[in-house]
Write a structure and sequence with these properties.
single chain; 2 domains; 5-stranded parallel beta sheet; 4-stranded parallel beta sheet; 10 helices; 19% strand
């Protein structure tokens, strides 16, 4: 039986993720008190195959039960129930905007001061985040993009092994991602930052992409990068690796790295691989 615990920051898209998993034939239960998880899993395991995939939504609405979560997870491990923890998060400022747009109240905040509640929630969930098998940052994601990532993670039987490739853009001035397996520096490419009409745009914009790729060096790098990936990925699969993180860096993480990350993501998708995309420093200045 496949068990996925969906958790993370309030407003980060857990409800949307649960809807996607329900569409994928997971038996979904939202806001289940952690103390009841072992009993619920036992009942499902005795369903004689009627329930094969379970998704459990756990969030801060049940924060008084979080002290029981560790006990429940350790019990499931002891009973050899296999489970994943899917953790969703987003930038604090983006979460504030989402709450203001929906006019909903954050469970740990007063109506007029949302940010302190978000920071408190982050602190409460930091240990659970460390235990997560997968982390999705929805800061710059549309609902459709979140749906695609959840499907990539949990859609079985696509014939491309269990390898998941995460492609990430970042800015060197904000630090190299600690979890990167491969790091590529694209600071040699034409920089839109110095073009006034492009400076405030990002690599998601077609004009920025065209500017970055309008050089022989950029085109040659793209070809060589794809050739290297074509060589590396099958060998990673052969060695049994199930997740690799490819980080593409420029100075600020908004223009050149975003452009190449998007192009590499599209290339890997065209090859049929399970790919996740993240722009880490997209909103930073």
């Amino acid at each position: 039986m496949k068990i996925v615990i969906v958790t993370g920051l309030s407003g980060s898209g857990k409800s949307e993720a649960m809807k996607v998993m329900e569409d994928m034939d997971f038996y979904c239960v939202d806001n289940l008190p952690p103390a009841l998880i072992p009993k619920f899993v036992e009942v499902c395991s005795q369903s004689q195959g009627m329930i094969e995939k379970v998704a459990l939504g756990i969030d801060i609405r049940g924060y008084q039960f979080f002290k029981d979560l560790d006990i429940s997870l350790k019990y499931m491990e002891k009973q050899e129930y296999k489970f994943d923890i899917l953790f969703l998060e987003a930038d604090s400022n983006v979460l504030v905007r989402r709450y203001k747009m929906t006019r909903r109240k954050h469970p740990l905040s007063s109506e007029d001061n949302i940010l302190p509640g978000i920071e408190k929630e982050k602190d409460m969930l930091k240990l659970l985040r460390k235990e997560a098998n997968h982390i999705i940052d929805t800061t710059n994601m549309s609902p459709r993009e979140l749906k695609d990532e959840v499907i990539n993670l949990y859609n079985e039987g696509n014939g491309k092994s269990n390898l998941i490739i995460s492609v990430m853009s970042f800015g060197f001035k904000h630090g190299i991602p600690l979890d990167a397996d491969l790091v590529f520096d694209v600071r040699f490419m034409p920089n839109p930052y110095y073009i006034p009409e492009l400076k405030e745009k990002t690599g998601d914009n077609l004009e920025v992409r065209d500017y970055v790729m309008n050089s022989n060096e950029s085109q040659e790098f793209k070809e060589k990068l794809e050739d290297m990936i074509d060589f590396l990925v099958p060998n990673y699969i052969k060695e049994g690796k199930n997740h690799i993180v490819i980080a593409i860096g420029c100075t600020g993480g908004r223009h050149r790295s975003v452009t190449i990350t998007n192009l590499l993501y599209e290339y890997l998708k065209s090859k049929g691989y399970r790919v996740l995309k993240k722009h880490r420093d997209y909103t930073l200045k």
